[in-house]
Amino acid sequence: MLNDTPESSSRRHFVGAAAAALAAGSLSRLAFADTSPATGIVTGPATGDKTALRPFRVHVPESQLTEMRRRIKATRWPDRETVPDESQGIQLATLQGLAQHWATGYDWRKVEARLNSYPQFVTEIDGLDIHFIHVRSRHDNAMPLIVTHGWPGSVIEQFKIIDPLVNPVAYGATASDAFHLVIPSLPGYGFSARPATTGWGPERTARAWVTLMKRLGYERFASQGGDLGGIVTNIMARQAPPELMGIHVNFPASVPAEILKSLTAGNAMPAGLSDEERHAYEQLSANFKKKRGYATEMGTRPQTLYGLADSPVALASWLLDHGDGYGQPAAALSAAVLGHPVNGHSSGALTRDDVLDDITLYWLTNTGISAARFYWESHANFFLAADVNVPAAVSAFPGENYQAPRSWTEKAYHDLIYFNKPETGGHFAAWEQPMIFAHEVRAGLRPLRA
């Protein structure tokens, strides 16, 4: 038992007060830590009009890259997985190998220069700064097209399709297939501002994209998207603004309501399905049972993912894992990181540095959690039949979450102007197979030119 003399009590009071002051000081420093790192330079208009198209250049201070490398090297690693495969998640050796290259051999400045080789802008829409790339074709009558990335992607996903779509003649197509491209960063992603209030989901984003295209002077345009970008594009099509000519999606929402109900309940496959429909049901069943953990967490508790803002390696593991191990749809990412095909799945044109470019963008802009919140803001089911009346083109890649059957697609997209099942490509089709993807966009939207 303590001898509680006035002197010892006074000492304890002093020590307690000092500890409290120290803790308060530490918490104060944490509370005011920089959550908005400087990553670019915006040239504002003389009038101060935030809705003006303000030129933007990426410029990451070297100190931020040094700090990122320090954090990677200081990672406290967990034990190795207790299984010989990836069934428990991203394997320790895989992530340690990636981290070693990230900390010592990776060069962010290459992708920074690539970003700055394209015209980039920021403009305020509905109170939020939106970043976008805008590349105009030199060909007359080029079609304006807004292309939206998904998660865990960014505008970096679209690099390899820009020139094939803007300059089609150089890639064996004709001048009549040319596009003017607008490639925005989703709200809370990349160089777009992080929403400070609720409400920035796919519906509001779709309306903002229409405002953006009109602000750029495009009275008529088409929209393209995959993953979350496909959701935004489908919703835009349902909103049916008069300026929208039509859409192309490579992540179609085509599952009939009764099929989705059966899948959600975990029921056995319904009778009477065609071979294509059975294949899609099997893919979706596996997806619903084993591969939606990341989406469930981001859709319900995104703020809990503090590690995404604190540890580059935590961020990388979260962005890489889709709950599917070395299967689809993230097989191309795994193959690129490992440097060889996995379970017969190639990375295509996707490289390890491509993957790190994207992860590093999330880290430098501190958008891991703000990007996750887009799932929390999404209230539409990603798979339920889209019920779209505007002209729609669909490319059903074999490595997608599910390869949409034509029978389902025709019922979901009531004016289906194009449907194709490419032989190669997956969830990140623009990244993995840019030439095939560019061909699909050209062919899919060609009927709108007539």
Automatic annotation (TrEMBL):
Gene3D superfamilies in alphabetical order: alpha/beta hydrolase
Range of residues in the leader sequence: 1-33
Taxonomic superkingdom: Bacteria
Alphabetized UniProt keyword annotations: Aromatic hydrocarbons catabolism, Hydrolase, Signal
One family name in Pfam for this protein: EHN
Gene Ontology molecular function: any one: hydrolase activity
Domain Epoxide hydrolase N-terminal stretches: 54-157
Similarity field: Belongs to the peptidase S33 family.
Protein name per the record: Epoxide hydrolase
Organism encoding this protein: Paraburkholderia phenoliruptrix
